[in-house]
Design a protein that fits this description.
Shape: elongated
Order of helices and strands: HHHEHEEE
Structural class: alpha+beta
Strand order of the largest sheet: 1-4
Strand content: 15-25%
Largest sheet: 2 strands, antiparallel
Number of domains: 2
Length: 119
């Protein structure tokens, strides 16, 4: 799909506020509501809009600690690497790096801070 300036403006507006009504979005990008809706549907159908999400306030929800966890594995177990990689890469925010022929996996973990179990 070839994007034009209007498509980019629609994407930017929806990225800023995914709850915009079609009427408000159309006004923001200077299109008629029907033309705007056609473009939004085309962007969705092309997979350029993957979904609409709520942005949560992690601190207010009690997620106060961000951590990168270092894991040591028993390399003597058959299939250790494949098993570990499959489990870790299931996390949406997992990142796999290769540095000087050594593999490193960073998994940003968010842990709920519990008052009764302080760190």
């Amino acid at each position: 799909m070839q994007l034009d300036n209007l498509d980019w403006r629609i994407l930017a507006a929806l990225q800023d506020n995914g709850r915009l009504s079609n009427q408000d979005l159309a006004e923001r990008v200077a299109l008629s509501p029907s033309a705007c809706l056609r473009r939004v549907r085309a962007l969705e159908d092309a997979g350029l809009i993957a979904g609409y999400h709520a942005r949560l306030d992690a601190a207010r929800l009690g997620f106060e600690v961000n951590a990168i966890v270092h894991v040591t594995l028993d390399h003597s177990q058959p299939g250790w690497h494949e098993t570990f990689e499959a489990e870790v890469m299931a996390f949406e925010d997992a990142h796999h790096y290769v540095l000087e022929d050594k593999h490193a996996v960073l998994v940003p973990a968010i842990r709920r801070f519990l008052d009764e179990n302080p760190l």
